[in-house]
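Reference record
================
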Amino acid sequence: MAIWHKQSGRKKTGGRKRRNRKPKKHELGSQFSAPEKGEKKVEKRKTRGGNQKNVVKKAKKINLATDDEVENVEIESVEDNPANPNYVRRSLLTKGTVVQTSEGKARVTSRPGQEGVINGELIEE
């Protein structure tokens, strides 16, 4: 079933609104990709204009930015996720997720489901 980003089909009272036109392609959305910790798996998704978007399905490494360099280190565990506390149990990686690495705790700064990579920065405790 398609996901549409458009006005609700219901009024405040709960009654139905009659549609005055069919849904337009620019209103089309997509399912949450749910990027998780695991063996690397990146999927390509078609977008508007003949372009493609890389979507992370699984990843086990993070590009960790320090003051002077960028290191590719392994993700040990998911510690905290401000988007949804249940994502910690499922080891889902979204923007803002705090992960444990060999260098210490890091916060994910990229959007894995949109950009195709997982970037992060170290956080001080």
Notes: The CA atoms of residues 44 and 54 lie 5 Å apart.
